Amino acid sequence: MKTPHIVVIGGGFGGLAAVKALVKSKNLRITLIDKRNYHLFQPLLYQVAMAGLSPAEIAYPLRSLLASHDQVEILLGEVKEINKEEKWIQTDTNKIHFDYLILACGSTYTYFNSPQWEPFAPGLKNIMQATEIRRRVFLAFEKAERETDKIKQEFYTTFVVVGGGPTGVELAGTLGEITRYSILRDFDHIKPQQTKIILIEAGPKILPTMTEELSREAVRELGELGVEVRVNSKVSEINENGIKAGDEFIESATILWAAGVAANPLNKKLGVELDRQGRIIVNRDLSVPGHSAIFVIGDQAHYEWGAEKKPLPGLAPVAMQQGRFVAKYIRNQLEGRKLPEFRYVDKGQMATVGRSRAVAMYKDIEIHGFVAWMAWLFVHIYYLIGFKNRLFVLFQWAWMYLTNRRGARLIIEKE
Amino acid sequence: MKTPHIVVIGGGFGGLAAVKALVKSKNLRITLIDKRNYHLFQPLLYQVAMAGLSPAEIAYPLRSLLASHDQVEILLGEVKEINKEEKWIQTDTNKIHFDYLILACGSTYTYFNSPQWEPFAPGLKNIMQATEIRRRVFLAFEKAERETDKIKQEFYTTFVVVGGGPTGVELAGTLGEITRYSILRDFDHIKPQQTKIILIEAGPKILPTMTEELSREAVRELGELGVEVRVNSKVSEINENGIKAGDEFIESATILWAAGVAANPLNKKLGVELDRQGRIIVNRDLSVPGHSAIFVIGDQAHYEWGAEKKPLPGLAPVAMQQGRFVAKYIRNQLEGRKLPEFRYVDKGQMATVGRSRAVAMYKDIEIHGFVAWMAWLFVHIYYLIGFKNRLFVLFQWAWMYLTNRRGARLIIEKE
Known about the structure:
The structure is a homodimer of 415-residue chains. Chain A has 415 residues and is an alpha/beta fold. Helices cover 31% and strands 26% of the residues of chain A. Chain A has ten helices and 27 strands. Chain A has helices spanning 13-22, 45-49, 62-66, 127-146, 150-156, 166-182, 212-224, 316-334, 369-383, 387-403, and strands at 5-9, 29-34, 38-40, 59-61, 72-76, 79-83, 88-91, 95-97, 100-103, 107-109, 158-162, 196-200, 227-230, 235-239, 242-245, 248-251, 254-257, 261-263, 280-281, 287-288, 291-296, 301-302, 304-305, 310-311, 349-354, 357-362, 365-368. In chain A, strands 5-2-1-9-21-20 form a six-stranded mixed β-sheet. The longest helix of chain A has 20 residues, at 127-146. Chain A is elongated and about 75 Å long. At the A-B interface, strand 4, strand 5, helix 4 and helix 10 of A face strand 4, strand 5, helix 4 and helix 10 of B. Chains A, B: The chain crosses the membrane at residues 365-385.
């Protein structure tokens, strides 16, 4: 019998969990395709944007990660076409046949119907964007320092973060920490602690998937760091002068986008039913309706769960559990064992706000402040891949906590 | 009396040494201008290009470095004009008057009369270029892996380094180390250890400022790492297909440029005598002829020394000694003390070749191999700025030595 070939697209949390579970069977051939050569620990990407960590500390080369597994082949490339019936995919360079396909391509930012906003309000999905945000943030302070005009100084020291989800809260909170701790004594003509940081959320509360109490606590903690939170505030315009939110135009040189997640555009090419966010509505076994050999996991999938039949959120634990499930499902099918059922185990939610501040919930337990922050640190170190990365990140955080300095404060010139 | 205002352009080794020596006088006003917001430890930049270190580990934010000195102001900007008579400079945003001016702008790469070669053979002077070289090198292996055609695989796994100075030797040697150690087991369709690495030097020997013996030793050590050295080989063409060196056209996807240093283009605007490399020919006190309040140091200056009247080389110790000298000169002049004379103290020379291999000379002492490599490591850790950077780099090197892995192997997508 020919060795079954399983193609996994995407080396994020979901895809990597699937590959790691698939290699337990020695008689499989696995191809992992990614447009990047590394696994990125996305939850800490905002710390790269905020100069706390270096890209290499939260990224791990896929080839090193899987070098010991001979049955795994890694291909750098972008998938351009998927043929469900003939079971092949086409990347920018190669055509690959599969017996099973696992789609784990994640999500991207959407600017709804206003793509013209993007140049003025970069999102945070990859390393290039993170270093670009870092460049803009620290350049804004340099520009303010060079100005003598108070109005212009205010323009450069006003930061607006759009989107009150975890990423928005983390970006705004860390901006607060930077201006209230890290760069306090670095300038002669501006007072960083007077920096205006505004977090804008279209809905009625920030951290919408958390409880009312934790959301309020996050607002309070953000306030301690100088962040003003505006809810029920809809963005209607973003340009080089600032942003219109609700009825007010806020003059600001630096706007960061952390709203409007959409699934990978590849989904549209599949010719199957999608939800409003562009996610594929999958079967109970995470397969694509009508195509039992194609599975979709993580941010790319719409999978309803619980009494309320809500789709599972775009979180790392969801993607990882789905990746492991699909791997087991395929292995059992090939080896003639009983097929498993997918059961989601809620690992809780957490968001860090800034220095010693976070909110977290696990089942009925809600915590905030220093304890939640310590829990957040522990969980993120624990899930980071690679002993060296763990040690480095831990040491960076300890150093940052003790000295308030941010070592990666580099404004890297663009070409 | 008005507080004397000293303007220093460039926060490299020379400029920073000058500022650090100037702050010993409390009654001076100092402005440090740099187009970057960080001091870059240039001698280790090739390790960023070769995925051994992260940019933040060899860069230190200028503002953090000088935050405790109230008399120092830092301005991010590029100098566009210098008026020697009226004593002011114009940056892209500000006009600044000075009593003394210290020019420490360093050098850049020149492609002689062939600027069209640059896109095919990037140089290594800043972080952006280092990450671009890293991207090209590691992408070349990925492209080779995707090919089935042997000729095309060879095209992607042939690397040419132009220039046999320390940077060229370090780049070529580290490429050897990467292909012979780091990525040995990472690919399925190519054998990294068969990678061709060719180091091209126009002159009769590599490391031209070192002795015949050390140069030969470097060739031998490079050979152990698979690097072929070609001397007396002049480049006459570089394009997307490869490079013509001597009579041969070498087909290669990845060419790195480490030849042809030229002083900062700002020099041409000064209206004073320059040498062939564009450096300002300075007085014995490092001032510009006819302008006793303007000093030039480091790579930007042509300063003859020794019995042979050769200009001092573009090395960090030269720039640092000159920076400290000029600072002392200005302070003594202002405080009515005896003016010092510049005396260059030779700190020797060293170049690392790769894992456990280096060459070094200090006065009459010549060493090579493991001992020279250890000396190289020690000196570079010692001169690196910042306790955290030292610790991180030391740990990165120890980890790389023990595991042969390179953590910063990231192909960062371009915008």
